[in-house]
Amino acid sequence: MDTIYGLFQEIVKEHGQEPAIIEDNRTLTFEELSSMVDRIACSFPKEIHSVGVVMRHRAEMIASLLAILKCGGRYIPAEPTFPTGRIHDMMKESDVDFVLTERAFANKLEGFPTRNTDCEICSVETPSWKRDAVDDPDRPAYVLYTSGTTGRPKGVCVTNHNVCHYVRAFADEFHPAPGDIMLQYSVCSFDIFVEEVFASLLNGAALAIPSDEDKADIHTLMNFVDRHHVTMLSGFPYLLAEINHLPQIPSSLRLLISGGDVLRGVYVDHLLDKATVYNTYGPSETTVCAAYYCCNKGKVLDDGTYPVGHPVKGTSIRILDQQGNEVPQGQTGEICIYGDGVSKGYIGDHAEENKAFERQSDGSLMYRSGDLGYVLPDGNIAFLHRKDTQIMIYGKRVEVAEVESRLYQCDDVQQAVVRAYKDEDGLAYMIAYVVPEDSNLKVSKIRKELSENLTSFMIPDYFVEMKQIPHNANGKPDDSRLPVVMKAGKM
Q: Quick one: which H or E segment has residue 465?
């Protein structure tokens, strides 16, 4: 069985009475979750292709994803808090059949057919019949949107087979089992969410979903973790850094996984004697993670960061030069990823970006990550930085060129460039250099316009008014002549 729903049904048969979804006021067993999936699936049209999901994080949302997958569709997730323009761009390019949502968010989805999970679907009785599952591992499972160089986000299409590969890789390294409980903390549009949901449920572990109130700060979150005996937590390095400052952590936590950005030693130095801590690496294009590194058994590099480690099961990684030749150990090259996690590529008109997926002689795909790294003497891989303008802000990938493109579309902006810098802690931030159309330019207005299409972490920290953008002899912006606004660190 190599579909997400197929693996789910195997777990339902073996562990049907075990907890699957844990919330503050209710717990659903695997059988109860499966029944909810059936109710939702039976409400769908006979054939579905792409289904948008704009919902609160709760059992109904997880059941909706599984229902879409059971019917052979792919889901396109968007947080209800996303800008309306960004949600529309995603749903339009994905050509959704309809959007599963709740009444509270209907105003964000004007122009799209919707189905309300809080009145039309989940309230119906369990059907007397069950819809047949589509058993095709090569069917797309989901599309996740990342920042794009064209001025609009690009959707990565991941298959059922890709996800099942990762479920097995996760199990091989972390050994989740019934009795384990994974925290569901990430937003649905990032692939940590995929790890939280599918690497837990499809291995028989439960998923604990905190409310917004529980996620208000690190203390209320840890109270939730303690209250529900959560054993596994996956998140950005900054979440682990917050936990690192606590005098103690819930005794139930056995595994802490960092992903989405570089992990610095100072982020977890007080956690290493309290839980198993991992640094992970992998672009969305290669399905969640391509490499793991156990920090408890390792050490930080000279720059204060942890290596990204060894390839996960079913994956291989090579460090190549621009000509495609493998570089000697210790030399810098591009991190290139092979194996069952490499996805189908980008949907829509992204021919140039899809060149990063290279067909191999055996028919498989290799993904050129655009990340630079090298192999350490012990065989582990060290990550250095991006080779292009893509950066990480709060664990999320941002294409600086996309931000710049949106800035150019703002009223009263004549010229603009956006550049990324590092603060005292080595974390990325952006400065926008703007030549105004007239003297009435206001930063507040620019921020408001940008927020209609960009999420908050994609809006530059600083705006610098310029009389003109300096250029070098080649006619390109001269970065050396752009004033830098320095940013203090937090650590």
A: strand 462-465
